[in-house]
Amino acid sequence: MDRRVVKTKTALRKALFVLLAHEPIDRISVSALCREAQVTRRTFYTHYDRVEDVFTEYQEDMRRQVERALSTGKMDAQTLLKVFDRILMANFDAFAYMCRNLHEQQLVQELQEMLFATFCEQLVSGQPTAQQQLTLQYAAYGVVNSYVYWFNHVKRVQYADVVTTNRQLLTATLAVLA
Q1: pLDDT per residue as tens digits for the range 73-92
Q2: Does residue 54 sit within a domain?
Q3: What is the CA radius of gyration of the chain?
Q4: What is the pLDDT of residues 36-62, one digit of tens each?
Q5: Residues 100 and 19 in one domain
Q6: DSSP 30-44
Q7: Are 96 and 171 in the same domain?
């Protein structure tokens, strides 16, 4: 992709997340987004039809990033958690927005499913049994939901507690598989 296009799209994404901190996406105008990103409306319309398209494209990019990172070869449970955590923290603003807004739950569900599929591939040799699938789904959904809870309760829950608790719970959950 052309560097100018990447620069423009990056500026629009950053501006969108700045504005999302104060307004829901359906109340952000193209003009406000362009002003914040310091791009013209004409430039915006070269790449997008509406403000929501910027976020949709970002979600698709994030989904691909998670899929690539989680499918890079055999990893143990703790490494998988570290990779997943690193991706979420690198996309902090977007994930926080998705966790706080119920109408954006589709990507959260997709993250849960991706993590579950990765757990099945990485943590079980062969085809997982029904009990193993239930256990791994419990673990994957629990990990993602702990982040969702944290983003919605940042004043009550520390990030370090989320990481530590996820490690401990995953270890305990995987003991059920043994």
Answers
A1: 777 888 888 888 888 888 88
A2: no
A3: 18
A4: 999 999 999 999 999 999 988 988 888
A5: no
A6: HHHHHHHHT--HHHH
A7: yes
